[in-house]
Amino acid sequence: MGKTLIKFACIIVLTFSILLGQAFAQDEVRFRTVPQFIFGVGETMEFTINYGVISAGVATIRIKDFVLAGDRICFRIQSEARSRKFFDPFFKVRDHVESWMDVKGLFSWRFEKNLNEGKYHDHKVVTYDYEAGHATVIDDGVPKDTTMLRHEVQDGISCLFWARLLPIKTDTVLTIETLDIKKIYQLKVRVLGIDTVNTPAGSFRCYKVEPFLEGEGIFKKDKAGKIWLWFTNDALRIPVMLQTKVFFGHITARLTDYTPGKPLPKDLSIIREELLGRQSKNAKAQTKEIDDEGEY
Fold it and tell me: How many domains does the chain have?
């Protein structure tokens, strides 16, 4: 079934990466602020992934908790995909992808993917330095590439959450700049219309969209492969189904369970203080461990 078998999270990763304009002052970086009230820590989306009628795997996307990137509070978003045990002997998948998304501006500070699919293994970490104006890729622990950044950018997971805030309208095409690890692409997203989608989690009225590229790169528009994604047409814009057409058939991911997240507290300084306290405690514990080892 190839690498496309259980890559729901990875397809999502590449589908809706958004690059938005942001002004740089001469001596400081000014970040955008995007108020939102539809997702928060604890939001969890669970999916089953089918190849035809065969349930081949499961995937989960969740906002696990808060973390600090410098002095910026971030959502830590985790996506996991795994093949079912009976399918492991044929093609074992254990994928883990993580994004640190700025709480106030909904852009990325860190992106990590650790893919284990059959004999294929790939571990990359991308860090975003907006003051220096570049993103750096570490490939299997070795610094590899840098990409110049002129704006705040989304990574492959944070883009999904940002896409849920876009004013989607039927029969329109959105042009989106996409940062895929180390390269920026011009991504087109065509809004095809509204469908009723049936999933194990229920029946939903959804916007159906099709992402593609007009040039070279991911999702190049051709007859061999297409991708469609369905978002609920309510305020939450939950991604409830994804389907990709490949030369050997269809792979479909359907929502099986959804848990809403907690609302953001009005005073984010409380979260920052808790995270700083946790960092201090961990640093002291590490120092003590080093001191204890030095006594032997």
Answer: 1
Domain for residue 293, yes or no? no
pLDDT at 216 over 50: no
Residue 200 structure tokens: 């194990």
Token output for 59? 């995937």
**Residues pairing with 97 in the sheet:** 79, 113
Q: Is residue 1 part of a domain?
A: no
Tokens 């120092």: give the residue: 287
* Residues in CB range of 250: below 8 A, 6 or more apart: 51, 52, 243, 244
pTM of the model: 0.83
pLDDT interval class at 156 (50, 70, 90): confident
Q: Which two tokens stand for residue 112?
A: 């990590």
Most confident stretch, 12-26, 76-90, 140-154, 170-184: 76-90
Please report, in angstroms and rounded to a whole number, the separation of the first and last CA atoms in the chain. 53
